[in-house]
Specification:
The protein contains five helices and seven strands, in the order βαββαβαβαββα. By secondary structure, it is an alpha+beta fold. The longest helix is centred in the last third of the chain and has 17 residues, at about 110-125. Bound molecules: coenzyme A.
Length: about 170
């Protein structure tokens, strides 16, 4: 895929999307899109959203996956735990994966996908409660990306971060 100058839109992954030449530089994230993403959707495990450009509307330029999850009460850092009920598991929303094709880097597509995921998570949490969005970074580079947007690492799990839904709700406010 050559770099694109088109405008991007985000939509649910479907059969029409070409996934085979997607390359974000991480083989596990490439493989997920190629072989697992549609299966997970069929099994109701995740919804995968893809970014496509107006000039190449079937080619995947970036993607993320979204699922419900639950986090053990003991895993939250102390300040967050204080606000939570004493249930063993606390409901949350998971961005399992997020990646941008190497040929589309630096176009703010990663940011666009992340904001799209946060907005969708916030909207869903108004129907089915969720205290935070969780992300699982694949390495320190991924962590650095999420830290820019206010994510907080779980204690003793440096690759796993969260952003409280209350914080997300403030993002769009003037
Ligand atoms: C991380 C990733 C999604 C960023 O995508 P991108 O489209 O190139 O990033 P954007 O253009 O939206 O960048 C937005 C801002 O974040 C910064 N940024 C991008 N990647 C970053 C990283 N890994 N660490 C810190 N900052 C980063 C950009 O410099 C830009 O900063 P600015 O506001 O000062 O200009 C992409 O590099 C990627 O897919 N990497 C491989 C997979 C991965 O690491 N996924 C995330 C964790 S699993």
């Amino acid at each position: 895929m050559s770099p694109t100058s088109g405008r991007f839109s985000v939509e649910v992954l479907g059969k029409r999307h070409q996934r085979d030449d997607f390359d974000c530089g991480s083989e596990p994230l490439n493989r997920y899109l190629r072989t697992q993403a549609r299966q997970e959707m069929e099994r109701d495990v995740a919804i995968v959203y893809v970014a496509v450009s107006s000039d190449r509307p079937t080619r995947v330029a970036g993607y993320y996956s979204l699922s419900s999850t639950a986090v053990r009460l003991s895993e939250w850092p102390e300040p967050a735990r204080k606000r939570l009920p004493r249930y063993p598991l606390v409901p949350a929303t998971l961005i399992g994966r997020l990646a941008v094709d190497q040929r589309c880097r630096g176009l703010r597509l990663g940011e666009r996908l992340l904001i799209d995921a946060l907005r969708r998570s916030l909207a869903a949490s108004q129907a089915i409660a969720s205290v935070a969005v969780i992300v699982e970074a694949k390495d320190q580079t991924g962590v650095a990306f999420y830290l820019r947007y206010g994510f907080i690492s779980f204690p003793d799990q440096p690759l796993r971060l969260f952003l409280p839904m209350k914080t997300i709700a403030q993002l769009d406010k003037p």
